[in-house]
Design a protein that fits this description.
Shape: globular
Largest sheet: none
Number of strands: 0
Oligomer: single chain
Structural class: mainly alpha
Distance between the termini: 70 Å
Helix content: over 70%
Length: 113
């Protein structure tokens, strides 16, 4: 409980990495302590580790289906994941196109010299 309480303090202070570390310790000592999963999920969301946050928050919802705080964070995490997905697809497409573009540009430069 001490680690999870300190994690809450770290969340309030926006020390999200420390909050995750404290929650990890709390879960290692008692993996049934649902508040530690909730706090770790919130911290991971703030760190933009959205898939990991979603997994933690889903544990909370599974154990406590009426937990409004967890439900709201899970809802927001899912929205953020959906928004991030198109950006990741666009970035990966750009990376696929970029080497071809650079190769063509390099060939053109060699012909000019």
């Amino acid at each position: 409980i001490v680690y999870a309480n300190r994690a809450m303090c770290n969340l309030k202070l926006k020390r999200y990495k420390l909050a995750v570390t404290d929650c990890d310790a709390a879960i290692q000592l008692d993996d049934g302590y649902t508040k530690a999963y909730l706090r770790r999920g919130i911290a991971k969301r703030r760190l933009q580790k959205l898939s990991e946050a979603r997994a933690d928050l889903e544990v909370v919802i599974h154990r406590e289906p009426h937990n409004k705080e967890a439900a709201e964070h899970l809802r927001c995490t899912i929205i953020e994941l959906e928004r991030a997905a198109p950006k990741q697809q666009t970035e990966s497409r750009f990376e696929e196109i970029e080497p071809e573009t650079n190769a063509a540009a390099g060939a053109g430069e060699q012909g000019v010299a």
